[in-house]
């Protein structure tokens, strides 16, 4: 969803608005730059990386190309800024939902909070989980890896918590478990995208997290 033109007053109100305890992180992004990166997410979703050009982005926003260049020097800079923005938001989600020590709660909250964020910002799904984007440039690839590392690190800490308490299997390392659950989450996100964001992603992720918990729980030897 593209944010309309914001006044300074509107922007101040916007960045202080809480959405069920989750606040959008503004970084040092100006209001017009935020509009541009949100439009970038939408264009990536509808047209893919090949359709993301300065010309198409200017058309999408009803801007001139020169107006876009006043805010960003290149397409790469726009994508890098978007990825930095997403990384800060994902890290803020984790910071505001610290590990509580109750494994099942922490595991469920991980999925719930990420789902809520992407439900509020559906056009970022492709940005975070697209394989094509990572090959666009070395700089963009590095930023995507940083973003995925943030997600992996938090998920791995939760899995290790469950293993340390002997609540879930230790036949796999925490790293191996994360290599299963992150792709499973990603798969559900892409199914949601394919449905034009019309399917019930909340229900799908709740079902997924419940199924994964059952698979991971330790079973008493017969």
Automatic annotation (TrEMBL):
This protein's UniProt keywords: DNA-binding
All residue ranges annotated as the HTH tetR-type domain in the record: 30-90
Lineage: unclassified sequences, metagenomes, ecological metagenomes
Species, as recorded: bioreactor metagenome
Protein name per the record: Nucleoid occlusion factor SlmA
Alphabetized GO MF terms: DNA binding
Gene name as annotated: slmA_10
